[in-house]
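Structure first, sequence second, as always.
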């Protein structure tokens, strides 16, 4: 047997002793480690204390890619290409690392408890596959637990089960997701529920037709406050003067934060500063004092507690039980060009959401999506979010099973509430939302939220989606009648004078 790891692993691969994706996974890990070492070598110049500090900041940001993208955006690729040319790491050494990494990947997958969960019959119908317009797909995602069905569908085999070789692509921010969607760089995307409405109507960007195909998660967010404010924040009025992070202007996070602050007499546009912050950068900004609090998707609320930097003030499920957050979306143009592929992709995600909705499956899902290629977070942090067994940073250990949940049904009443708040808050300050939406709530919702398609696919999977498309939404401070969104806005403004 050859002594060189590269030759040895090559022989073992030919013998069929490796999982097919072991080398792909190992290469991504090796490249990530190489990039990190290059960055530390060039930036820290041998200063061990500086290296530890930079390493901690990278960890807080959720990984080097997130930290570097947040700091330098598209210039990150240029930096690493230049750095790699000057590196002392040889191609042979790099290949050796990949070979050893592949061995470790395979050994890990063969270890006790390393088997994939049982997701049912995974045999693909050849007739179905033959109808697919394309099978090699790229689906963009932000590394947050809201994306669980989209992420888990790759490692757990839901995409493959429906005849697709779909790869999830980690994105640094929601702005990058929007821009990549418009540029046609992705086949489909993980989006915040308000984004398809905003993009289609040209709010915050040029008009670009996007459909919301299914809801990724309900609940799953929280308001987290820096520990330096512990004991001072009891309710919405106490946020006056704060700088508060949200992941994107057209997000449920921004709309729910504004809803909450207004009930305490806080004008979100005058009494606080609401700042867009990429989720992976949120903890670093909290630690640095750039923001005082944030309403963010998990796992970054729980990660702040884990790091001893913040406490969970309120779960968003307490503001609106079972509210929508993130969604699976694709452009009008892509859906029209790939109707069968779109249905297969949406169906795989709806099935994954159904699987994730079962509490007994969540510990295994947490292990699968915590990995470096996906969330890049400690498994115990992700598991705390998915199981609802968590410390809140205020000395309490809580058990809230629906802290996050997964129901893919895109209620039209969700669309109407979102639209009502886009009109109420006029985020662009030009009245465009009111012009585009007022008097056309049902029309806008039915054009963008594909409720009937989601119901049809869920029924094919044996799920039991509702027959209705509207329901009265009960929030913490009021009820929303989807038939009267304009009246709802008037009542909100009258009640809180904001």
């Amino acid at each position: 047997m050859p002594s060189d790891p590269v030759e040895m692993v090559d022989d073992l691969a030919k013998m069929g002793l490796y999982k097919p994706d072991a080398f792909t996974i190992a290469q991504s890990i090796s490249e990530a480690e190489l990039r990190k070492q290059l960055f530390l070598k060039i930036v820290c110049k041998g200063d061990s204390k500086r290296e530890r500090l930079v390493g901690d900041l990278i960890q807080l940001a959720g990984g080097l890619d997130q930290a570097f993208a947040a700091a330098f955006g598209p210039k990150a690729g240029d930096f690493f290409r230049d750095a790699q040319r000057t590196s002392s790491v040889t191609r042979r050494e790099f290949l050796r690392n990949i070979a050893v990494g592949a061995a470790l990947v395979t050994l890990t997958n063969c270890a006790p408890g390393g088997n994939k969960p049982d997701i049912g019959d995974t045999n693909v119908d050849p007739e179905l596959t033959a109808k697919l317009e394309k099978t090699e797909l790229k689906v963009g995602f932000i590394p947050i637990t809201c994306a669980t069905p989209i992420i888990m569908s790759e490692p757990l085999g839901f995409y493959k089960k429906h005849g697709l070789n779909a790869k999830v692509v980690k994105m640094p921010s929601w702005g990058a997701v929007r821009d990549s969607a418009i540029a046609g760089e992705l086949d489909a995307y993980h989006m915040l529920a308000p984004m398809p409405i905003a993009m289609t109507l040209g709010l915050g960007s040029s008009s670009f037709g996007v459909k919301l195909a299914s809801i990724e998660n309900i609940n799953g967010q929280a308001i987290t406050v820096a520990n330096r404010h512990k004991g001072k924040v009891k309710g919405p009025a106490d946020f006056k003067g704060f700088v508060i992070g949200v992941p994107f202007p057209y997000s449920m996070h921004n709309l729910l934060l504004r809803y909450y602050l207004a009930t305490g007499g806080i004008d979100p546009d005058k009494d606080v500063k609401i700042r867009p912050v990429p989720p992976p950068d949120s903890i670093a900004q909290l630690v640095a004092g750039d923001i005082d609090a944030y309403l963010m998707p998990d796992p970054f609320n729980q990660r702040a507690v884990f790091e001893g930097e913040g406490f969970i003030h309120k779960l968003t499920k307490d503001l609106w039980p079972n509210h929508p957050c993130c969604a699976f979306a694709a452009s009008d143009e892509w859906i029209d060009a790939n109707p069968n592929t779109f249905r297969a992709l949406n169906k795989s995600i709806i099935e994954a959401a159904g699987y994730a909705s079962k509490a007994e499956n969540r510990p295994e899902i947490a292990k699968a999506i915590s990995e470096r290629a996906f969330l890049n977070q400690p498994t115990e942090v992700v598991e705390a979010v998915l199981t609802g067994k968590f410390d809140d940073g205020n000395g309490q250990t809580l058990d809230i099973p629906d802290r996050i949940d997964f129901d893919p049904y895109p209620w039209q009443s969700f669309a109407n509430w979102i639209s009502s708040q886009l009109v109420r808050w006029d985020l662009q300050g030009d009245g465009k939302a009111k012009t585009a939406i007022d008097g056309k709530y049902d029309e806008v919702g039915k054009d963008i939220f594909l409720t009937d398609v989601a119901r049809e696919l869920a029924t094919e999977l044996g799920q039991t989606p509702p027959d209705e498309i509207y329901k009265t939404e009960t929030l913490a401070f009021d009820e929303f009648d989807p038939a009267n969104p304009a009246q709802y806005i008037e009542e909100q403004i009258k009640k809180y004078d904001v």
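Margin note: Residues 72-81, 107-114 have pLDDT under 50 and may be disordered.
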